[in-house]
Specification:
The mean pLDDT is 85. The protein is mainly α and 314 residues long. The protein has 14 helices and no strands. It is globular and about 80 Å long. The chain has a domain at 109-259 and 301-313. Belongs to the binding-protein-dependent transport system permease family. It is a multi-pass membrane protein.
Amino acid sequence: MADTTPAPKPRGRLAHWWDGDFAYQFRRSPVAIISFTVVMLMVLAAIFAPLIAPYDPFDPASLNLMNGFSSPMEPNAFTGETFWLGTDDQGRDVFSTILYGLRISLFVGAAAVGFAMVLGITLGLVAAYVGGWVETIIMRIADVQLTFPAILVAMLIFGVAKGITPVEYRDQMAIWVLIVAIGLSDWVQFARVVRGATLVEKNKEYVQAARLIGRGSGAIMLRHILPNVLSPVLVIATISLALAIIAEATLSFLGVGAPPTQPSLGTLIRIGQGFLFSGEWWILLFPACTLLALALAVNLLGDWLRDALNPKLR
């Protein structure tokens, strides 16, 4: 008698990924789950800030100075309005300013890391594959840059770029200048890691086989070597995201980052610091806690990713 049992349906890629080692380690790590959830909630809150925020804190027509210095969850003495996290000196809702500031911080951090990653990967690949005087020049520049703190390099680049930008465009270009400044201060670690991995990969048999069939140097670097050196790069990028967000907050706190018309979390902390000792603690506390939670969650996620992608720890 013929077997009439229906054949099992083929499993999709998502199901195979969910049953893989990476997803299994993720499900077994409470730290990874919590940190990923926190990061995703903040990313979604930043993306949908115009829909979530109860007020537009940067619309002058919607501001009421009578709401200034309202305490969290307490009715204002003049208007009777209640704000979840209070208001600042101009009557802006602190919760709304945090959501909008989070957008700037995340955008600057992600864009700066993306720029640093592209630059570092390109220079690292070229240095290791070409070798010779090209490698010497690139790596000596990297060594010189490593002798200076990254925040000082970013401040120097930001100051020079801002100085050559026309005055009427400085506020409009400040965010992009900030991204370039942080990116140029952070490309070295990507270049060094990619160079080291490429030196190992370029002598393997699959690269030699690609040369034998006539593949060009660019195709070999992009299609053969690059996919095999990306694992450590992804780990560095995750950890660098937290550092880039903190660098942006530091520059904005020092007054050389995001403009007042587009305040980030660092700008909000700088504003709140001026009112800390006069009793309006909430103007500083809530933006600072948001920055701390974001940086901590991204760092913990990066640490887990480093361990999950390390074959020696499996």
